[in-house]
């Protein structure tokens, strides 16, 4: 009888002589990009933050359009973050300037390919193909269409300033228009990398726009969507501190509006020692420490 019980037990746990593991094996490690994509493209929280930003921007622009003295939010040549000076409006028509990728458009198709495609592919070649062929695999960021429609009804010209390539102006115009947030016309309401000598810098294009318009609001997902001066910071803590400088701190939510993007860009840099100040680091005394950068 004991032998029969033993055989039945072995049969239920696999085969004789092989013990079944007490716990299932650890799942494969998730792609490090996944968490950011889960948040930006899938979460209700990111959608709510996006709508919150667009709602605040619409309210701010509405207030500005009702006032007599409209204020430009484009830094003038020679300005610094400690001493910002702005391009004068001088009776120019009102405009609002926006980055495109992950500001007014979610690049869902490109990021899906990035997550599921073969690793170690050349980014520049893949992005160029995306600009040309991915025009229908995008969506407006939550709240963008409603906000941009409202701005246009107020008489504000909506202008896009993006680092997409000028060689692909046609497909970029189509992507914006097909998403319902256009019109976008290269050289008029769409400015692209290659339009000037600044490369990925946007100050030159901003100056061109500000020469024609009183830019009363700007939106983007990177600090470079507001000023190239932010790129001059010497460290991660210094870059963060620049956003709190008294001369510019009041612009966030009052002319400068930031959209969430935990997936890519200049925000994603620094190791543990850069992110967490030394006087804010805590170690659980009951567990060993691991090496961090």
Automatic annotation (TrEMBL):
Keyword Signal among UniProt keywords: yes
Record-annotated membrane-spanning stretches: none
One family name in Pfam for this protein: Acid_phosphat_B
Keywords from the UniProt entry: Signal
Signal peptide range in chain numbering: 1-21
Name of the protein this chain belongs to: Acid phosphatase
Organism name: Sphingomonas abietis
């Amino acid at each position: 009888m004991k032998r029969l019980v033993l055989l039945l037990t072995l049969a239920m746990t696999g085969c004789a002589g092989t013990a079944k593991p007490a716990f299932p094996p650890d799942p494969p490690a998730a792609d490090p990009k996944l968490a950011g994509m889960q948040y930006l493209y899938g979460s209700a929280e990111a959608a709510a933050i996006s709508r919150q930003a667009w709602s605040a921007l619409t309210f701010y622009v509405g207030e500005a359009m009702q006032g007599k003295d409209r204020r430009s939010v484009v830094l003038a040549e020679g300005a610094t973050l400690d001493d910002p000076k702005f391009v004068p409006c001088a009776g120019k028509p009102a405009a609002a300037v926006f980055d495109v990728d992950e500001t007014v458009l979610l690049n869902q198709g490109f990021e899906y390919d990035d997550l599921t495609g073969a690793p170690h592919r050349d980014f520049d070649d893949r992005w160029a193909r995306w600009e040309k062929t991915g025009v229908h695999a995008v969506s407006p960021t939550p709240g963008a269409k409603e906000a941009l429609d409202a701005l246009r009804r107020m008489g504000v010209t909506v202008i896009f300033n993006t680092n997409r390539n000028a060689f692909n102006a046609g497909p970029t115009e189509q992507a914006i228009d097909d998403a319902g947030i256009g019109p976008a016309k290269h050289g008029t309401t769409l400015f692209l990398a290659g339009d000037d000598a600044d490369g990925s810098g946007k100050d030159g294009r901003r100056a061109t726009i500000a020469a024609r318009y009183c830019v009363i609001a700007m939106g983007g997902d990177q600090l470079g969507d507001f000023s190239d001066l932010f790129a001059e910071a010497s460290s991660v803590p210094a870059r963060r501190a620049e956003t709190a400088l008294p001369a510019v701190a009041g612009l966030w939510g009052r002319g400068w509006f930031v959209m969430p993007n935990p997936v890519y860009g200049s925000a994603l840099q620094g190791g543990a020692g850069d992110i967490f100040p030394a006087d804010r680091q805590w170690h659980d005394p009951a567990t060993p420490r691991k090496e961090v950068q």
